[in-house]
Amino acid sequence: MNKKLAAALSGGAVLVLALSGCGDSDEEKLDNWAKSLCGQIQPQLEKSVKAQQKIVSTAADGKPEDIQKADSEAFKAIADADKAIAGALEKAGPPPVDNGEKIQQDAIKDLNEASKAYEKLKKDVDGLDAKDQSPEGLKAFSEGLQKVADDLGKIQKQGDGALNALLEGDVGAAIKKQDACKANPSTAPGPSKA
Q1: Which residues are in coiled coils (predicted)?
Q2: CB of 172 within 8 A of CB of 166?
């Protein structure tokens, strides 16, 4: 009888050790996944942040043509960065958590939609007439730029859903630990106003 009890207790001890080991290995798997993802997207995050900074720096003292050029280039860079981040997330696979595949696919969808929306903003900015320096021309440019700013606000709100799910809970905690993911591409400033 003592042998059966000892066997049961040792079996229980093995189970406890296995479960505690799984917890560590699950956390380690998640950290490794986040490290892999962040290593791939770090250059894209930098590109996005630089593009946002370019918009802000040109807005203060820029001429309409300078503002148009800066915004157009920035929107293109952000669109490319979002698309590349979606590709990196696809390559990294789902995070090793419950609902990991849904979190991954929803974030990829959000990033690809944001990329397309930024491409449209680029076209909208490119379509503005920045050369007409008459009062009417400057007013039309300013109004067009305001519409772009309004559209940018909508894009940012739409992108907050599934992408934020990627940055919550255990997945978010693992990502936030990574130095390569410290930049936050979702906080783009609005375009400049003439």
Answers
A1: 104-131
A2: yes
Any idea which residue has 């390569």 for tokens? 180
Distance, CA of 112 to CA of 127 (rounded, Å): 23
Torsional sign, CA 173, 87, 116, 98: negative
Q: Provide the token pair at 57.
A: 């720096």
Whether 31 and 177 have beta carbons less than 8 Å apart is answered as: yes
| Nearest one of 79, 77, 88, 78 to 35, comparing CA atoms | 88
CA–CA dist 149, 128 (Å, integer): 13
Q: Using CA atoms, how far apart are residues 8 and 6, in angstroms rounded to an integer?
A: 5
Domain segments of the chain as ranges: 27-181
**HEC secondary structure over 63-97:** CHHHHHHHHHHHHHHHHHHHHHHHHHHHHHCCCCC
- The predicted pLDDT at position 140 comes to 92
Residue-wise pLDDT tens digits, 118-137: 999 999 999 999 998 899 98
Is the pLDDT at 77 greater than 60? The verdict is yes
